[in-house]
């Protein structure tokens, strides 16, 4: 019998409720309709096609460009009890044949397939021989030339709708502007398909922009402040990834680099090690990430500024996919923006495409230089208006204070004038700070009146203030003259004292950190300490089990599930099934190890009169029972009423613990008691007195309690 969508969600994914839009999308697809789903990374796109796949007869075909990810996706589905497989160019002919045989036998519900395999010779005939119930096009923005990750092999996907007009199709993506999404639907042959657009807001992600100086020092400090957290540092150049990873390793930090020029075997090894938590920090180019199904990445850093908001949003979206709090950081300097601009200008793109790239880069710059809520800027790019600030970006947390910067502005503008307006920002900072480096002295800039006039400001402060002056129109930049700074009418008004300059006060990472420490919340409560300690112990259990089973840790349980365990501290199977993300399959495989760890921790922390888990008193009784003590001896040892001990043993039996309850009553006694209970329609947890009186006091209360425990389980 086919299950409902709610039953599937609980049985195979361990959740009680759908996320926003998921239920509506599933109903639409299950009714046989085409659609496009736009959801942020970590928003639950996969559930939108995996649940319909299990609701209907037949097999769902998932087309994905991410060959490296297929294995992990399929492994995760199988771990949840869902029959799935993948087909791509990495498999042998024998492996592919075995999977095709499974498909024909109706043994699979989902088949992941790479586009190049889909359109290989004979593949379409194979697909026609199957009972396809749905086509799911993952990363569908790859279809469009307007998308930021165009894949030529995706352009043939329109063949599917032509060949299978009655099979519903869902296109899924995390990032697509309006031009891209229209093109995707047209290319797929479903131009009239309904578009479901979830909010692109990821409230669990903290958004931060850091000055683009002393980057390595800041990275080291951040990692040291966040021990045991998994993170990715994105860099523009391959060489940069290698250099940063090496510097971090020299400081004792578990970091590796990743880029497209690494041998395939090494790339695969590094990626697997990161997935398995054997590597803590990945320093990578954008070649890394799309093939990563790792929900517990706690932070993303951009060492260099991305060229557009789509790429940036998709990359930061790889943090916190489990819904837990995570950090994103972008290092930014005006030089980063100029470098990106030069790259576009020197490319061989047609001018109209260059103009589009320039416009997208400017939107990225707007985000980086924001003096108001960054999340509002990010969401506005995706045409999503919000009416309040987020409270979880650096600008919201630390509202910018402005100051009268007329004097430093005059010093900078004067230096530009005295160098004949042929000086770029980096050299201007050297002049203002009185640096005697070769670039300064060879040009004679050490002899101008304003040389060293700005020594009171650090280089990073000058870089920030000069960028603000450019953005506010106090001066200009000539991109075609080696980025020389130029004076304009506003510049001369400032120099003549006719106009004031207001700038946002600069604050370094160290200064922000110090201030945050001073204003931080008080020391953790005892409850928070227990939760965090237990979470770390559970994380180690998960790592041990993942190594033993040769699968990534998050495939056992996500950080969110471990966090819920640490918060609720379940000590039996019934309690464990109430944990978010828990399913029967995983409970059977791994539940006991986590319950034992929680119990072990509880025993080590329990003091007389205090217990840190609900039901610990039952566990203390069970510990003594396992040592061979009788109920009478346990009652004496624990200073309890003997009936209370019997009640403990009955409850333990109900919760699935091994307790030989039949030693406390005979089969005849059980039959008599339960017949009376049935007559009285006794319900679980009901008072025992009516039953005791019905039986005219023939049986002691403890026998009634034990009999009802057995009866309840048998029913």
Automatic annotation (TrEMBL):
<dbReference type="InterPro" id="IPR004589">
    <property type="entry name" value="DNA_helicase_ATP-dep_RecQ"/>
</dbReference>
<dbReference type="GO" id="GO:0005524">
    <property type="term" value="F:ATP binding"/>
</dbReference>
<dbReference type="InterPro" id="IPR006293">
    <property type="entry name" value="DNA_helicase_ATP-dep_RecQ_bac"/>
</dbReference>
<dbReference type="Pfam" id="PF00270">
    <property type="entry name" value="DEAD"/>
</dbReference>
<dbReference type="Pfam" id="PF09382">
    <property type="entry name" value="RQC"/>
</dbReference>
<dbReference type="InterPro" id="IPR001650">
    <property type="entry name" value="Helicase_C-like"/>
</dbReference>
<keyword id="KW-0413">Isomerase</keyword>
<feature type="domain" description="Helicase ATP-binding">
    <location>
        <begin position="26"/>
        <end position="194"/>
    </location>
</feature>
<dbReference type="Pfam" id="PF00271">
    <property type="entry name" value="Helicase_C"/>
</dbReference>
<dbReference type="InterPro" id="IPR018982">
    <property type="entry name" value="RQC_domain"/>
</dbReference>
<dbReference type="GO" id="GO:0043138">
    <property type="term" value="F:3'-5' DNA helicase activity"/>
</dbReference>
<comment type="similarity">
    <text>Belongs to the helicase family. RecQ subfamily.</text>
</comment>
<dbReference type="GO" id="GO:0009432">
    <property type="term" value="P:SOS response"/>
</dbReference>
<feature type="domain" description="HRDC">
    <location>
        <begin position="528"/>
        <end position="608"/>
    </location>
</feature>
<dbReference type="GO" id="GO:0006281">
    <property type="term" value="P:DNA repair"/>
</dbReference>
<dbReference type="GO" id="GO:0030894">
    <property type="term" value="C:replisome"/>
</dbReference>
<dbReference type="InterPro" id="IPR036388">
    <property type="entry name" value="WH-like_DNA-bd_sf"/>
</dbReference>
<dbReference type="GO" id="GO:0003677">
    <property type="term" value="F:DNA binding"/>
</dbReference>
<dbReference type="InterPro" id="IPR044876">
    <property type="entry name" value="HRDC_dom_sf"/>
</dbReference>
<keyword id="KW-0227">DNA damage</keyword>
<dbReference type="Pfam" id="PF14493">
    <property type="entry name" value="HTH_40"/>
</dbReference>
<dbReference type="GO" id="GO:0046872">
    <property type="term" value="F:metal ion binding"/>
</dbReference>
<protein>
    <recommendedName>
        <fullName>DNA helicase RecQ</fullName>
        <ecNumber>5.6.2.4</ecNumber>
    </recommendedName>
</protein>
<dbReference type="Pfam" id="PF00570">
    <property type="entry name" value="HRDC"/>
</dbReference>
<keyword id="KW-0547">Nucleotide-binding</keyword>
<keyword id="KW-0234">DNA repair</keyword>
<keyword id="KW-0479">Metal-binding</keyword>
<dbReference type="GO" id="GO:0005737">
    <property type="term" value="C:cytoplasm"/>
</dbReference>
<dbReference type="InterPro" id="IPR029491">
    <property type="entry name" value="Helicase_HTH"/>
</dbReference>
<feature type="domain" description="Helicase C-terminal">
    <location>
        <begin position="218"/>
        <end position="364"/>
    </location>
</feature>
<dbReference type="InterPro" id="IPR027417">
    <property type="entry name" value="P-loop_NTPase"/>
</dbReference>
<dbReference type="GO" id="GO:0016787">
    <property type="term" value="F:hydrolase activity"/>
</dbReference>
<dbReference type="InterPro" id="IPR011545">
    <property type="entry name" value="DEAD/DEAH_box_helicase_dom"/>
</dbReference>
<dbReference type="Pfam" id="PF16124">
    <property type="entry name" value="RecQ_Zn_bind"/>
</dbReference>
<dbReference type="GO" id="GO:0043590">
    <property type="term" value="C:bacterial nucleoid"/>
</dbReference>
<dbReference type="GO" id="GO:0006310">
    <property type="term" value="P:DNA recombination"/>
</dbReference>
<keyword id="KW-0347">Helicase</keyword>
<dbReference type="GO" id="GO:0009378">
    <property type="term" value="F:four-way junction helicase activity"/>
</dbReference>
<dbReference type="InterPro" id="IPR032284">
    <property type="entry name" value="RecQ_Zn-bd"/>
</dbReference>
<dbReference type="InterPro" id="IPR036390">
    <property type="entry name" value="WH_DNA-bd_sf"/>
</dbReference>
<dbReference type="GO" id="GO:0006260">
    <property type="term" value="P:DNA replication"/>
</dbReference>
<dbReference type="InterPro" id="IPR014001">
    <property type="entry name" value="Helicase_ATP-bd"/>
</dbReference>
């Amino acid at each position: 019998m086919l299950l409902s969508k709610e039953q599937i969600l609980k049985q195979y994914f361990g959740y009680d409720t759908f996320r926003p839009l998921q239920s509506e999308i599933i109903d639409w697809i299950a009714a046989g309709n085409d659609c496009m789903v736009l959801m942020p990374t970590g928003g639950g796109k996969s559930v939108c096609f995996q649940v319909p796949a299990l609701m209907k007869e037949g097999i769902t075909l998932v087309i994905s460009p991410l060959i490296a990810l297929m294995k992990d996706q399929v492994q995760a589905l199988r771990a949840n009890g869902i029959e799935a497989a993948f087909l791509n160019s990495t498999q042998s002919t024998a492996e592919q044949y075995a999977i095709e045989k499974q498909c024909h036998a109706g043994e699979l519900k989902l088949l992941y397939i790479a586009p190049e395999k889909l359109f290989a010779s004979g593949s379409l005939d194979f697909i026609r021989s199957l009972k396809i119930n749905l086509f799911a096009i993952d990363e569908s923005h790859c279809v469009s030339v307007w998308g930021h990750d165009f894949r030529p092999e995706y352009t043939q996907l329109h063949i599917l709708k032509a060949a299978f007009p009655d099979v519903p199709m869902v296109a899924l993506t995390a990032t697509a502007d309006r031009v891209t999404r229209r093109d995707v639907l047209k290319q797929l042959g479903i131009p009239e398909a309904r578009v479901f657009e979830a909010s692109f807001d990821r409230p669990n992600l903290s958004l931060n922009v850091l000055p683009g100086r002393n980057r390595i020092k800041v990275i080291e400090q951040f990692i040291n402040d966040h021990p045991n957290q998994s993170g990715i540092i994105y860099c523009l150049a391959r060489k940069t990834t290698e250099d940063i990873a090496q510097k971090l390793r020299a400081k004792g930090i578990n970091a590796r680099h990743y880029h497209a020029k690494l041998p395939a075997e090494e790339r695969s090894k590094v990626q697997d090690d990161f997935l398995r938590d054997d590597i803590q920090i990945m320093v990578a180019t954008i070649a890394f990430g799309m093939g990563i199904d790792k929900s517990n990445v706690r932070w993303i850093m951009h060492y260099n500024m991305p060229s557009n908001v789509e790429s940036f949003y998709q990359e930061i979206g790889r943090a916190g996919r489990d819904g837990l709090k995570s950090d994103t950081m972008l290092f930014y300097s005006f030089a980063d923006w100029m470098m990106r601009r030069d790259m576009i200008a020197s490319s061989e793109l047609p001018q109209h495409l260059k103009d589009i790239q320039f416009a997208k880069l400017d939107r990225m710059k707007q985000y980086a230089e924001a003096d108001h809520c960054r999340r509002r800027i990010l969401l506005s790019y995706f045409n999503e208006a919000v009416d309040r600030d987020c409270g979880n970006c650096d600008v919201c947390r630390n509202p910018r204070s402005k100051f009268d910067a007329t004097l430093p502005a005059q010093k900078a503008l004067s230096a530009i004038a005295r160098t004949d307006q042929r000086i770029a920002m980096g050299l201007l900072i050297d002049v203002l700070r009185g640096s005697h480096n070769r670039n300064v002295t060879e040009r004679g800039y050490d002899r101008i009146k304003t040389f060293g006039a700005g020594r009171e400001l650090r280089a990073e402060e000058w870089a920030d203030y000069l960028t603000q002056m450019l953005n506010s129109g106090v001066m200009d930049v000539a991109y075609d003259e080696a980025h020389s700074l130029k004076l304009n009418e506003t510049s001369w008004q400032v120099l003549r004292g006719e106009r004031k300059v207001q700038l946002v006060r600069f604050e370094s990472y160290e200064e922000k950190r110090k201030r945050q420490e001073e204003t931080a919340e008080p020391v953790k409560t005892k409850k928070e300490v227990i939760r965090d300690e237990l979470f770390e112990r559970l994380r180690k259990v998960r790592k041990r089990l993942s190594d033993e089973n040769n699968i990534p840790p998050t495939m056992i349980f996500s950080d969110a599930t471990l966090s819920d365990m640490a918060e609720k501290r379940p000590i039996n199977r019934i309690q464990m099934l109430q944990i978010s993300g828990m399913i029967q399959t995983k409970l059977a495989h791994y539940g006991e190890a986590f319950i034992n760890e929680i119990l072990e921790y509880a025993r080590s922390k329990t003091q007389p009169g205090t217990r840190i888990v609900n039901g610990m008193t039952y566990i203390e009784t069970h510990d003594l029972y396992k040592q061979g003590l009788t109920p009478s001896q346990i009652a004496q040892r624990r200073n309890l009423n003997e009936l209370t001990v019997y009640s403990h043993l009955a409850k333990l039996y109900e919760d699935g613990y091994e307790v030989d309850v039949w030693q406390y009553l005979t089969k005849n006694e059980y039959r008599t008691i339960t017949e009376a209970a049935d007559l009285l329609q006794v319900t679980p947890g009901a008072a025992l007195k009516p039953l005791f009186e019905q039986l005219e006091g023939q049986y002691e209360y403890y026998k009634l309690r034990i009999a009802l425990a057995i009866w309840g389980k048998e029913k």
